[in-house]
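hiii so my PI (J.) wants the whole complex modelled not just the main chain, which honestly fair. so below is everything: two entries, each one labled with what it is. i double checked the lines twice but i was tired so who knows lol
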Amino acid sequence: MIGWIEIVQDIVYFFSLYYVVFWVLVLLDDEPVQKKLKGQPEVSILIPAYNEEGNVIPTLKSVEALDYPKNKIAVYIMDDGSTDNTYKEALAYSKLMLKNHDYKRVVVITQKNKGKYAAMNAALKMVDTEFFASLDADSMPKKDALKKIMECFGDEKVAGVSPVMKVYKPSNTLQTIQYFEYLVNHFYKSVIKKLDSIHVLPGPLSVYRTAVVKKLGGFREAHKTEDMELAMRIQKAQYKITQCNDAFVYTKAPYSLKSLYRQRHRWNYGTFRNLLDYKKMIFNRKYGDFGVFQLPMIMLSGLLGIIVLGLLSHAFWKGVRPFFRLLQLYNYNIIELIRQSSMNIIWLDIDLRSLITFMIVFGLTLMIMWLSFRLYKQKYGLKTTLPFIFYLFFYYLFLAVVWLGVFKDYIIGTKVGWRK
Amino acid sequence: MRVFQKRRYLFAFIITAAIFFIGFFFGFLMDIQRANYFTDMNNVEKLNIRSLELQQQFLKDNTFKNQCSAFRFMFDKAIVELENNRDRLDNYNEQSKVKQADFELLMREYTISQINFLSIANNLKISCANSSDFVTVLYFYSDQATCPSCDNQATVLDYYKMHLKQNILIFAINEKLDKSEPLVALLKNVYNITSYPTLVVENDVYPGYVDKNAMDKILCDRYKANETRSLICG
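here's the output for the full assembly
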């Protein structure tokens, strides 16, 4: 009999399948020819920092190591009212940078804590180069990252270029799981860029066309996700955003589940609120695939995640509850329960439809993982099998829990800060 | 104004719908396979019943009196198969999306088989009294909406089936079949079944959920052998 759970299941399955099929079709499209920018224009690198003592110097060192003419780089380090030694460390190292190289400029600014967007705007006022990059103070670009990103600005309509992020030295299971997540995200963005549908320019070394950003009014508070909001505004103004597939930037990923939850809550909450702020773009053909497909799907993905979490919890509960009841009747003597149980399974007991659904989803997931590894120029290491299994089967359930928190906070009106 | 390919959206929809309907098709094939399996099994059950009924006729004759244990062995084997298949049929019926009418018909046939077995069991108590230290339980259940505690009751009965094995014969009757199967309506009427779950233990009616403690008390005095009694009487 078809109950409401089966109907919901079928709807979720249909939408998820449509989403994947659509992206597979996009994947099969030819790669658009990207016009390369000739020469190496001047770039400002803006490094906002809040309590990044110990992180800011490695980041500045990675800037120093960039394979790009130093005299074409201006560095702005904006201390956003840190309560630790971030400012002192940045100031001391900036002097060294100026002493050792012929940078166009190295400036350290400090201000009262106002948030990242305010720090970025403060520096943006001083920027006089055609391009500028934002670089989070816990991120380190590869030597050739900036050079490669700049090449992607060949098309005048390109206003922002995103790098490819990698988790910096993953040292525990959770960080390795995030490593896989970043890997798949990279693949995903490499596909959606074909449709000009990138919706975020992340903090670690995204490069912008200065004139466009200034024309659009700089950065906004935007529910603590200024990078996404600015990308939305760029898309709205009909400029292009692309990803440079071989410009890698290393970023430090949260080490604990609690800090990961906080980070993802902030990101997802900001995404959700920004989507509400730009709701007129959703399903709007004026914005092409970005409006018709990408934005509704972002909105829907959180909701679908929660529904899937609910359905799986229901199925798990339904399957496990009789066993626990039986165990209770056996006074929790599991050995006796197993001894008295008899297995009576025939092949017809297998729910073929669910099995096929699972196999299709699993097969597509493995295909995406394989393509992601190839694009990331990485080989799968056997040592990472356990995090890989966790990533495949549990990580998206964790993200659904995050979305649940996001909707809860939105409904009850909880304020979300950087440390939430 | 950006361009976007309507064709891609449509093509993705067609592919998705195709995969989706392949899934439905497999579900349909599965339903057919399951219905066929039960049609075959049903024929086996009918044959088992005919064979057991015939054997029971022989047992009335003094020449075959000492064959009770052999008969009991066959009876137990057949009843385990019957209960397994009824349980399976119940699950398949729940999962079925297209062959529901067929499954309901099969459910009717299985219910009739169960009642046949119940009748054989009752006769067995007379013809083979010494090798028939078992209790018969008729379990009337309904769907989740009508009977929220039926799942719990089924688990308690599962426990006794696992614990007492051939010393308890449980016949689960879906009360919803009363509209299609007059025998179910008749039994409901005879035992005055108005709420679910209801257990009929050797003709005594126990309406409502019966937990393990209550069930122990109900069953305890009904066994003759000390060995069986010790399993539940503490």
